Amino acid sequence: MFSNLTRKKCNDYDLTPEEEVGYDDMGPVLGVQNYGILVKKYKRKNRPAKWAKRFFVLKECFLIYYATSYKKVFEKTRRIDLHPKGIIPLIGCSIVSGGDVDKKNCLLIAHPQLPAAIIVAAADHATQEKWLKALRSATKISYKNTVVGETMIRELENRGVLLNEEKKTYEERLEAEAKARKEEHDRADELAKDKEELEAEREKLIRTTKKLKDDLQNVKK
Question: What whole-number distance in Å separates Cα of residue 60 and Cα of residue 135?
Answer without folding.
Answer: 10
